[in-house]
Amino acid sequence: MSAKTVLSGVRIAVLGAGNMGQALVRGLVDKSVYPQYISVYDPDPKKIALLKKDANIRAAKTSRQAVSLADVVILAVKPQTLPEVCAEVSSGLPAGALVVSIAAGVTISGIEKHFKKPLPVIRVMPNMPAQVGQGISAYSVGRHATAKHRKIAEAVLAAFGEVVPVPEKMLDLVTAISGSGPAYFFLLAEKLIESAYEMGMKADTAKKLAYHTALGSGRVMMQTWEDPEDLIAKVASKGGTTEAALKTFKRLGFGKVVQEAVKAAHRRSRELSEGRS
Fold first, then answer.
1. Count of CB atoms within 10 A of residue 128's CB?
2. What are φ and ψ of residue 46, in 5° steps?
3. Are 55 and 81 in contact (CB under 8 A)?
4. Per-residue pLDDT of the chain in tens (277 residues, 90 and over written 9)
5. pTM, entire model
6. Which of 3.90.1150.10, 3.30.1050.10, 3.40.50.720, 3.40.50.1000 is the CATH number of 12-167?
7. In the CATH scheme, what is the code of domain 179-273?
8. DSSP notation for the chain
9. Domain boundaries, the chain
C-alpha cells in the first residue's frame, strides 16, 4: 500500500494538454498520484487521447466536467485563452477549490477577477526543462491561499522539478532568469557547435561534445553548489586555453551582453503582465 502524501485523495483537474500540461500530468502519475483522480480537458482530442493512453487519466468532455469534482484546478492554457476558460468553469468550481495558474504573464489579481467568488489562487512560472522532469517553478500565493494550499501546490509542482516561493513582484524577474533562461544556454551550445563545425569538426561530434559539456557542468553546479567564480577557477589555469577564451569573452563584453539581455526579458515580462502587447 502506498504511503499517504499531501496529494493522497486530492482530485486534480488540468485544463490544457500542451507541453506543460502533459509534463505535469505524466509527472503526477509518476509520483504515484492515482490516475483516475486526474481529469484533463483540452479542445484537441488527439492530445487527450495520447494522455489517456499513456497515463490512464480521466478524459473530460468539457472544461466544466473536468473541474466539477476537483480540489485543485491547474490552468495550463495560453494567456490569451485564459479569460474564456475561466468564464466556462467559474460557476462550476467546487467551493474552496485551489486554482493554480501557469499562464505566463497573468497576475493573481488578473486571474481572480475572472471568477464569481473568492478563490485561493497560486500563480506559477515554470520553465521548459519541466518537460523532462528537470524544471524549476517559482510560485506566488494569492490573498485567499492558506499554508495548506501552499503545500498542495508545492507537491503538485514537484511533479516536474524543483519549486521555490517568491513574492509576486519577483515573477517577472524569474521569467527573465529561469523562464527564458534555457534559451540562453541553448544559444551558447549552438555557437559552440557552429564554431567547431566552421573549424573542421563534424556537426554530430561537435553537438555531442557541447551537449555533454552542458549536462556535466550543470551537474557539477548542482552537486557542489559552489559559486560560479570558484568553479571557473578550477577550469582556468594561468596562461592556459580557458584563460585565453575567458579574456576574449571579457574583452568583447560578454558579461554586459548577458546583463542587458536579462534586463530586456524583464522589461518585456513586465509589459505582458501589465497587458501591453
1. 18
2. -65, -40
3. no
4. 356 789 999 999 999 999 999 999 999 999 889 999 999 999 999 999 999 998 999 999 999 999 999 999 999 999 999 999 999 999 999 988 999 999 988 999 999 999 988 999 999 999 999 999 999 999 999 999 999 999 999 999 999 999 999 999 999 999 999 999 999 999 999 999 999 999 999 999 999 999 999 999 999 999 999 999 999 999 999 999 999 999 999 999 999 999 999 999 999 999 988 877 6
5. 0.91
6. 3.40.50.720
7. 1.10.3730.10
8. -PPP-TTTT--EEEE--SHHHHHHHHHHHHTT--GGGEEEE-S-HHHHHHHHHHH-PEEPSSHHHHHTT-SEEEE-S-GGGHHHHHHHHGGGSPTT-EEEE--TT--HHHHHTTSSS---EEEEE--GGGGGT-EEEEEEE-TT--HHHHHHHHHHHGGGEEEEE--GGGHHHHIIIIISHHHHHHHHHHHHHHHHHHTT--HHHHHHHHHHHHHHHHHHHHHH---HHHHHHHH--TTSHHHHHHHHHHHTTHHHHHHHHHHHHHHHHHHHHTT--
9. 12-167, 179-273
> How long is the chain?
277
